């Protein structure tokens, strides 16, 4: 009888662990989405087309390492400029903004110098 009771308790605990894992996964996904959204809001700032990861970090109120991770993970949606900032930092914008707002001359230079197009 005790063995059956122990087995039932283990089964209940396994179910609870599975529910907790699912909740943690959903929380992590929510956090990832929040960070992505914050980075893209910073990249969409009307003040300037090209921004550094440090500027994104400040605007989005995110750690610089998180910003860099988002930039890496969403590289298909984020463009890195062929030039760097005055401080030598890489410059970024969204691919949509790049296509809509960057001059043809800059696109042409980017095509030869870097992977911008």
Describe the model.
This protein is mainly alpha-helical. A three-stranded antiparallel sheet has the order 1-3-2. A hairpin with a 5-residue loop joins β2 and β3. The longest helix is centred in the first third of the chain and has 42 residues. It is elongated and about 80 Å long.
Attribute tags:
mainly alpha; three-stranded antiparallel sheet; 5 helices
Structure at a glance:
The chain has 117 residues and is mainly alpha-helical. Helix content is 66%, strand content 12%. Helix 1 packs across helix 3.
List the helices and strands and how they pair.
Elements lengths: L1 H42 L7 E2 H8 L3 H10 L4 E7 L5 E5 H7 L2 H10 L4
Antiparallel strand pairs: 1-3, 2-3
Task: Note the overall shape.
Answer: elongated
Order of helices and strands: HEHHEEHH
What's the overall average pLDDT, rounded?
Answer: 83
Question: Order of strands side by side in the largest beta sheet?
Answer: 1-3-2
Q: What count of helical segments does DSSP give? A: 5
> Strand tally, please?
3
Structural class: mainly alpha
Low-confidence stretches: none
Q: Between the first and last Cα atoms, what is the distance in angstroms?
A: 70 Å
Radius of gyration: 22 Å
Helical content class: 55-70%
